[in-house]
Design a protein that fits this description.
single chain, 562 residues, mainly beta, six-stranded antiparallel β-sheet, four-stranded antiparallel β-sheet, 5 helices, globular, disordered N terminus
């Protein structure tokens, strides 16, 4: 008898898989043989009027609100301010950097520099930081990628900015400080620390798989997978910077003295706490975990011996310092591409002061984490957004801004308004209005069973699928000009897709089949939101699972696996 651990999916796990399954070919509604017949059956169906699926269950306490509503950027990756300046600066991925005054009614940004136009070979901009004495020297530091595809390098250069309004950056003033090989995970974040030194994040320079093919993570002879720390106000040994004498690996054989900390896969956005001076960052994981680290001098953060708490190459080469676990390790049910943020020191939200606020590019959620007595105390979800959270920004009052990569817009957190629909979100499957009989898995009037042409393999689990369209609405094909099996469809507001998984407790004995989980996708405000319901022991109903998912254990008997 095999004890089989099963994860009941939380928010977002089912989203892509279900939509991909839906798009694997025409829907075979009511076992009809053709698309045309299926459409006719949709037209003839009774209206579905029983839906109770509205709002969001147990919503987090904040939501986002757009600011600077007249401004929109093309794939923004950096939002920052210069010391003593009332202007914001935005770097776009393709190399264009603009600025605009801190005015909510600003209509148009001003060009600072377009690196792709001014410097040959520039592909992407990843980081930008202004010198602490910017008001006197007008220096800005930019990290950009140069080359073609994966053949090239990441460069950190200093530029001079004009003392004009609006400011302009002179491409001929470039002073190249250092560079390292690119390859996919480049880091590229730049921040000046409270000590006046420039800190630079680098990734492992590789594509996702296999993990860390260059074994850069634990190799101190390689600038990759590290946080670098350099003194840009002095030069030595023919280099345009100096190595701070207290860097941890100065004088160590086969170690680059620029390295401050190492063992990072793809550190995406780092910032210093203005009160404690602590350096925080988000590190994008490989397949299982997303990490938040508080960086220490000489710290080893595990990659690629570890991915958070998970061993990857446990017998691989290790650096000279012990591996430090992350402050926060988020499983893939919550986060798939972490974006580092800021320790909040503003005044708008006293309850958040001292919390490190960060987000996720894919799941679009925002969290706060607290440290107490040098230990991780708690993490709380703050907001479930519809933003591709590529980076955060902070103004001179230490108030926080969120940047949406997809739409190029800027946002702030605001308290979430109380919504009666949220409070009434169905906690059991029988309350959803999807079933005439939940116990018998009998759809309500107007809710239509369907199958897919190619179903995914699910370890012998079988799936029953339903589509529910409110009232007498229809699915329509988007006017994208695309043809073929992977068509783009437009679903009405409050459409619901349903998938119920069942398992046989004795393999190949249908009489022992038991429903495990019903997953639903709810189409609301242009977004698909995923939820799971766990079936009870007597198979009469299923209960809503928390967003982070649940674990359950099933005993399956299988003659082929005694």
């Amino acid at each position: 008898m095999n004890a089989l651990p099963v994860r009941i999916a939380g928010l977002s796990l089912f989203l892509l898989a279900a939509l991909a399954a839906m798009m694997c070919g025409p829907v075979q509604a009511w076992a009809q043989p053709s698309v045309g017949d299926s459409v006719n059956h949709f037209k003839q169906r009774p209206p579905w009027t029983k839906s109770k699926i509205r709002g969001i269950p147990n919503p987090p306490p904040y939501q986002t609100e757009r600011v600077y509503p007249h401004l929109q950027f093309e794939k923004p990756v950096v939002l920052t301010k210069a010391p003593g300046s009332r202007r914001w600066f935005v770097a776009e991925l393709a190399g264009r950097i603009v600025s605009f005054p801190d005015d909510p009614e600003c209509q148009k940004p001003d060009l600072l520099i377009d690196l792709a136009e001014e410097i040959e070979g520039v592909q992407h901009v990843y980081g930008m930081a202004f010198h602490p004495n910017y008001e006197q020297n007008h220096f800005v530091y930019i990290c950009y990628l140069a080359g073609k595809g994966f053949q090239g390098d990441a460069r950190v250069s200093r530029f001079k900015v004009s003392n004009t309004s609006p400011p302009r950056c002179d491409a001929t003033s470039e002073c190249l400080l250092l560079k390292w090989e690119t390859g996919g995970h480049n880091g590229g974040c730049l921040e000046f620390g409270p000590d006046g030194y420039l800190y630079i994040s680098t990734g492992d320079g590789a594509s996702p798989s296999p993990p860390d093919p260059y074994r850069a993570g634990q190799n101190l002879a390689d600038l990759r997978s590290s946080i670098l720390r350099i003194d840009v106000d002095h030069s030595e040994h023919g280099q345009p910077y100096r190595i701070p004498p207290d860097n941890p690996f100065v004088g160590q054989a086969d170690a680059r003295p620029e390295i401050w900390a190492y063992g990072l896969r793809n550190p995406w956005r780092m910032n210093f706490d203005p009160v404690t001076g602590d350096l925080w960052l988000g590190d994008v994981g490989w397949e299982s975990w997303e990490m938040v680290h508080r960086i220490k001098r000489g710290g080893n953060y595990g990659w690629s011996v570890m991915e958070g708490p998970l061993p990857i190459y446990p017998e691989g080469m290790r650096g000279p310092t012990p591996i430090s676990p992350p402050v926060v390790a988020l499983p893939r049910s919550q986060s798939t591409s972490v974006t580092g943020g800021f320790v909040y020191r503003g005044t708008k939200f006293p309850e958040l002061v001292g919390a490190y606020i960060f987000g996720d590019y894919d799941t679009r959620r925002v969290w706060a984490t607290w440290i107490q007595d040098e230990q991780h105390a708690s993490t709380q979800e703050l907001a479930a957004t519809d933003l591709r959270l590529i980076t955060f920004g902070q103004d001179e009052r230490h108030e926080l801004y969120l940047v949406d990569y997809d739409h190029g817009t800027l946002h702030q957190l605001v308290p979430r308004a109380t919504d009666t629909e949220d409070q009434a979100f169905p906690q059991t499957l029988s309350q959803t209005g999807l079933f005439a009989s939940t116990r018998d898995h009998l759809p309500a009037a107007g809710v239509i069973p369907f199958s897919v042409n190619v179903s995914q393999w699910a370890d012998h689990a079988t799936a029953e699928r339903l589509i529910a369209l409110p009232n007498d609405t229809m699915v329509s094909q988007a006017s994208t000009g695309k043809s073929g099996p992977l068509q783009q469809w437009e679903f009405p507001e409050n459409s619901v897709l349903v998938r119920t998984f069942s398992l046989e407790m004795r393999h190949q004995d249908q009489s022992t089949r038991r429903r495990i989980e019903t997953q639903i996708l709810h189409h609301q405000a242009g977004e698909w939101r995923g939820y799971s319901y766990r079936w009870n022991d007597d198979q009469s109903d299923a209960t809503l699972v928390a967003a982070d998912g649940e674990q359950m254990r099933l005993s399956i008997s299988d003659p082929q696996a005694p």
